[in-house]
Structures are given as structure tokens and as C-alpha cells.
Amino acid sequence: MRFFTLLSLLTFSLISQEINIEKMDKKMAIAQADENGIIWYDVKSPPFKLEGFAWFKDEQIFKRLAKFPSQPIRIHVENLAYHTAGGQAHFQTDSSKILIRAKLSNKSNMYHMPSTGQSGFDIYSGAPGHQLYLKTSRFKLNQTQVTSELFKGNPKLRNFVINFPLYNGVKSLEVGIKAGSQITAPLPRKNKGKILVYGTSITQGGCAARPGLAYTNILSRRLDYEFINLGFSGNGRGEPELAKLIQEVEDKTMIILDYEANANEGIKNTLENFIDIIREKHPTIPLLIISRILPADAIHNKVKYEKLQSLSDFQKSLVTQKKKFGDKNIYFLDGKSLLGEHAHEATVDGTHPNSYGFMIMAENIQPTIEKILNK
Predict the structure, then answer these.
(1) CATH code, 38-184
(2) Cα-based angle 242, 247, 252 (whole degrees, multiple of 5)
(3) CATH for 194-373?
(4) What is the pTM of this model?
(5) Which helix (H) or strand (E) holds 300?
(6) Splitting the chain (375 residues) into consecutive groups of 10 residues, what average pLDDT does each group show?
């Protein structure tokens, strides 16, 4: 009896100890980046091409709105603007190794989103429109200074894109390559201009497993356009001030409004005015309105589904009315269809898409954008 008691105590002691997965699985371990013979370059300077920061040319900071916006904005929008969702650094190098060295604004702390999505960087390689994922930065959750290897391979000139974190700020980002390697400007995109998306946490990328899986980044790769991500988690409410700030973004090819999930019934009071403000300076730019994706509880709850349907009908009706009165470049896409037949498996919490959900969203949004822009 005493033997079994001792055995039970020993077993409990082992189970109660914190498990170090890095010791158990070496592939999970965070390898120390080898800085021997590495030359560091600040991505704010040529030959890097930064995308996703519409005011960067004047501000020189990684912020999705101007440092001092021309319109008054709520403090939550101001803070979220420092989250670097949609930010990208493009370049070419023949280095056999690529590292990053970054300073983040905050530690990772989200309960329903992987730290690799909240605070990580990921890297893709390939010609514009044909880029494939390679690797994601590795770091400790309590770190705000990160050095991580993102690529290792044969020395050959390649085109690379590094995606910035979705739910954290970036104070600085440097790219390290092996001494003696060349680093040059990236290959040009096939399509000029920017597609701007205004919306919610879903637009911002919550809760993708890594930055490249936010639906705006997926569409950026597939359509070969620069995307400006103006998704503000919990705060995409359709304020007129944001419409006026959107007016300021240069070289827009298309504007997408996807903010019902935050506005809810308020969209009935804000959407038309938001559209009218945009049309003051951009009377003919293609404007796509996307209603909310299908939350999991609406699949099972008839009352919630009908409420969602009524808001979708309102947006569709408004677009039809605008067309009737002469706006030939305004369009509507029913968001309830975007997660497809497995919508119940496409979120992490019933609301925010997982990586699968974002992939399906992008696949179902892409044909509509292509049809509009190819008219």
C-alpha cells in the first residue's frame, strides 16, 4: 500500500511539473539566430519597398493612419492604428540566410489568437502573384525584442515578402543577410494602385495563425495588388472621420467597406453617409460593400439569422438605390456566403475566422473583385 502511495505521489509530481515542449520536441525549440557574418538593413530605407502604410512617406513610422490625423479619431482607433496589420516589406536578395531583428510595442497576450499571428512576422518567396510561404518568426511570449531566422537555402536571387504582425505594433524592423550577398529592389507588381479595406477585427486579421493568412494579405498575393488594411478591432463603426481619412489615401484602385460586425444596427445610420463622403472626392472609384460573415450562433438560431439577414438586405437595398440614382461603380457582396458550407468550422470562437476561414473568405471574395476591376 505504501509503495502505491509513493508511486502515486511521484506520478502526481511529474504531471504537475510544467512541460517544456522545446526539450521534448527539438523541432519546437527556438533556435538562436546565427548573427556571425550578418549585415543588417533597416526596411525603412531602399532597396526595400514598404506596403500597407498609406502615410509612411510623410510619417516614417509603422502606423496605419497618419501620426497626427487630419480628423479627430477615438483613442481606441488611434491605438489600433499602431497595429501593423497588412504591412509588408518587399525585396530581393541572393543571400543563403535571412534573419529579422525587430522591436515590438507589446508582449503577446491574446487568449484566442496564436502569438505568431498577433506578434509574428512571416515570409513568402516568389514572383509577384506566385508567392509561397516559407517560415514564421519564433520568439518567447514575454519578448518585445526579437531576432529570428526566416530563411535558409541555396544562394540564389529570389523575391521575398515579409508580412508584419496583425495585433501588435512594430517600433523597428531590420533584415539581416549574409555579408557579400546582394540585396535589391523587389520585382514590380503586375497591378498598380491600392485596394483599401475598412472594417473590423476580422479585417484586421483576428484570429489568423500568422500574418500572411489574414484575408487582405491572401488577396494581396493572389490579385497582385497592394492592400491597405484599415480594420480596427471592435472599432469599425463607420464614423465620418474615417471616411474623410480614406479620401486622403493616394492611388486607390478600389475601396471595400466591411464593418457591419462592429456597427450592427448602427450601420443603418452610418453607411449611406460614409459612402457619400467617399463619393465627394472619388465619384467613380469601385466601391464594394460586404455584409457580415456568418457567425456560428446564427447558424443554429433563427432569430439571429433573420436579424443578420435584415442588415444584409439593408446594405444590398442601399447599393441598389445608389445604382438607380447614377452610381454605376458601387457593388454588394453577401458576407453570409463567404465561409462556405463548413462555416461552423471556420472560426476560433464563433465570430473570428481561423486560418481556414480566412482562406475560404479570400477565395470567395476574389472573383467579385476580379469581375469589378476587369470591367
Answers:
(1) 2.60.120.260
(2) 120
(3) 3.40.50.1110
(4) 0.91
(5) helix 296-300
(6) 48 54 55 76 97 95 97 98 98 98 96 96 96 96 95 97 98 97 97 98 98 98 98 98 98 98 98 98 98 94 96 98 98 97 95 97 98 93
